[in-house]
Amino acid sequence: MITYSYRRAGDDDVDVITDVYNEAVIEGGSTTDLTPVGYGERKAWLDRHRDPYAVFVIGAEDAGGVRRDIGFASISVFYDRPGYDGVCSLAYYIARDARGRGAGAFTMRTLLDEGAARGMRRVCATIFADNAASTGLCERFGFTRYGLMPAAAYDSRGTLHAMSYWYADIGR
Predict the structure, then answer these.
(1) CB 59 within 8 A of CB 94
(2) Which residues fall within 8 angstroms of residue 130, CB to CB, at 6 or more apart?
(3) Of 74, 89, 97, 156, which is least packed with CB atoms within 10 Å of its CB?
(4) How many CA atoms lie within 13 A of 96 on its CB side?
(5) Count of CB atoms situated within 10 Å of the CB of 45
């Protein structure tokens, strides 16, 4: 049995955030960054997440009590004009060796709960349309797909993906 937890990310977490993200960049299929990012870029990204926005580190503890950080998640600005206050963009990345065991569902529930607690009324996600795990999570958690852009973005392996756009109402 694995027990998941989360905490607000701080400066000490930039390394794990960078490592998990760069694993996803290299793997392809989940981000439009084409090359790995550096510590400074991820630190600046983390620093931009001021309340009500946030970044969280996802932890896992196995049955033997061994705990490790396995991913991160973010509640980010959707669009920087005041009329969009209360709408945010969600993202998450889970280390490859921790996937398929409930970490994604735990993380999505965390993001939705934190978003509501932070006064968000609507959450949005932009996902490669062929990312079955992430689109499946959106469906499972009641998101509505509101758009599909064919042949929109490349990943690091040079694969051109359609992008799917999702939202869910969570409060107010």
Answers:
(1) no
(2) 29, 161, 162
(3) 97
(4) 11
(5) 17
CA dihedral 10, 14, 15, 17 (to 10 degrees): 100
Separation in Å, CA 117 to CA 5, 12, 21, 40, 90: 17, 25, 26, 30, 14
The domain spanning residue 108 has which CATH number? 3.40.630.30
Domain count of the fold of the chain? 1
- 98-132 in b/e burial notation, b at 16+ Cβ within 10 A? beeeebbebbbebbbebbeeeebebbbbbbbbebe
Count Cβ atoms below 10 Å from residue 158 Cβ, excluding itself.
8
Nearest in space to 116 (alpha carbons), one of 48, 51, 172, 49: 172
CA-wise closest residue to 150 among 130, 120, 166: 130
Q: Which residues of the chain have pLDDT under 50?
A: none
Cβ atoms of 25 and 37 closer than 8 Å: yes
CA nearest to 91, candidates 34, 24, 145, 44 = 24
User: Domain residues for 140?
Assistant: 3-169
For 28-105, list the strands marked E by DSSP: 54-61, 67-77, 87-94
What 8-state DSSP symbol labels residue 69? E
